[in-house]
């Protein structure tokens, strides 16, 4: 066979039987492998391939475009490898990755069945991220010559259930939510009232449609002409939360999730609230408007916990208005803004407000269904002129 240095060499083995010698020869040839597959070989396991692929992504960045891969994205990939790929198929050799083998893996994960050491999970789980990771891993194996083609190209698509309704709040529900997150409503008997962070943060999200991390990343320098008739907010960053081995500490990233800035016109109520907050807290131009007691960035996880507690307390009241808030999250406020703007202005206005590149993302995930189609009678009347 042709070796890694390009020279042709004979491979010889000895065994007591002809069939035994053939098997030993096949194993020896497999061990030597394709001379062009220097980094990854067919007999390498998925666990080995996963570690090599993660390092490759660290070194080379994004697979389809230039630029480094964000640490939080690497953390998501590592989590999928640690929680699913290694327990399920970590000891399987790359060369054994056939289409039926991978189809069975995805079917088991989607339906919550046990696969290898990956435990069963009630209700199953999404395989979207798993598909991304395995496609990248096996693509790298193909690039190294360990596989002739990527079997992920022929894997059956995920079975798509009926699209769930976009959860959002109506205007009356949003108004009731604002009442329930006020510090007076959140007060525990015989204890000091909580601060106004949550109620003011909820107003900010309802008035902008920002992501939670974007809202907490706002600084005084990002606010323009607050006292003018058109107060502006320049959304140009987000907070990155700690991820073990990938993100050491909470910090501000000087770009949004989509890496595109946007400038929003603030409602008068939100502009006034931010003015008063800046006067009260007196942060420096580059410091957070929503800060901890020591002046550091306020964690999105902290605000999510506060909001969840507020919703739980509201639901405990048991009224129809309170029960309507059940299941709401900070992201529900973003969908509420998207739905309202899309219905009252346009889908494109909602897309720009939320900072999406693709209007289909806005429509599918951030715009709730209308109870009644818009009134277009005046438009349709032109079809019914007297005959």
UniProtKB/TrEMBL annotation:
The UniProt entry, under CDD domains, shows: DNA_BRE_C
**Pfam families attached to this UniProt entry:** Phage_integrase (PF00589)
Q: Which domain of life is it from?
A: Bacteria
**Keyword RNA-binding (UniProt):** no
Under Gene Ontology molecular function, one entry of this record is: DNA binding
Q: Per the record's keyword annotation, is DNA-binding included, yes or no?
A: yes
What UniProt keywords are attached to this protein's entry? DNA integration, DNA recombination, DNA-binding
Q: Record's PROSITE patterns?
A: TYR_RECOMBINASE (PS51898)
Q: Name one GO biological process term.
A: DNA integration
Fetch the InterPro entries from UniProt. Answer: DNA_brk_join_enz, Integrase-like_cat_sf, Integrase_catalytic, Integrase_recombinase_N, Phage_Integrase
**Where does the Tyr recombinase domain lie?**
164-381
Q: Where are the transmembrane segments?
A: none
Q: Which protein family is it in?
A: Belongs to the 'phage' integrase family.
Its protein name is Tyr recombinase domain-containing protein
Q: Which species is the source of this protein? A: Leekyejoonella antrihumi
């Amino acid at each position: 066979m042709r070796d890694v240095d390009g020279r042709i060499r004979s491979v010889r083995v000895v065994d007591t039987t002809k069939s035994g010698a053939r098997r030993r020869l096949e194993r020896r040839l497999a061990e030597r492998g394709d001379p062009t597959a220097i980094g990854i070989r067919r007999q390498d396991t998925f666990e080995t391939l996963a570690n090599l692929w993660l390092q490759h992504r660290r070194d080379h960045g994004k697979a389809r475009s230039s630029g480094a891969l964000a640490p939080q994205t690497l953390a998501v990939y590592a989590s999928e490898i640690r929680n699913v790929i290694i327990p399920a198929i970590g000891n399987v050799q790359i060369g054994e990755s056939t289409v039926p083998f991978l189809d069975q893996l995805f079917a088991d994960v989607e339906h919550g069945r046990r696969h290898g050491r990956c435990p069963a999970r009630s209700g199953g789980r999404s395989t979207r991220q798993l598909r991304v990771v395995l496609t990248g891993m096996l693509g790298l194996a193909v690039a190294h010559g360990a596989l002739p083609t990527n079997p992920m190209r022929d894997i059956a698509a995920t079975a798509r259930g009926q699209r769930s309704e976009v959860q959002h709040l109506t205007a009356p529900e949003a108004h009731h939510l604002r009442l329930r997150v006020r510090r007076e409503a959140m007060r525990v008997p015989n204890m000091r009232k909580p601060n106004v962070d949550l109620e003011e943060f909820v107003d900010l999200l309802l008035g902008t449609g920002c992501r939670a991390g974007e809202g907490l990343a706002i600084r005084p320098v990002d606010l323009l002409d607050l006292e003018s008739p058109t107060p502006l907010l320049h959304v140009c960053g987000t907070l990155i939360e700690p991820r073990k081995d990938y993100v050491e500490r909470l910090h501000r990233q000087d770009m949004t999730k989509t890496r595109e800035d946007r400038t929003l016109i603030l409602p008068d109520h939100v502009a006034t609230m931010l003015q008063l907050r800046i006067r009260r807290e007196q942060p420096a131009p580059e410091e957070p408007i929503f800060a901890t007691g020591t002046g550091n960035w306020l964690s999105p996880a902290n605000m999510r916990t506060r909001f969840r507690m507020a919703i739980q307390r509201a639901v405990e009241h048991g009224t129809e208005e309170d029960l309507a808030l059940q299941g709401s999250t900070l992201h529900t406020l973003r969908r509420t803004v998207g739905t309202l703007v899309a219905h009252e202005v346009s889908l494109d206005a909602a897309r720009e407000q939320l900072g999406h590149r693709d209007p289909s993302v806005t429509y599918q995930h951030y715009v709730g269904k209308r109870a009644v189609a818009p009134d277009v009678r005046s438009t349709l009347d032109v079809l019914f002129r007297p005959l």
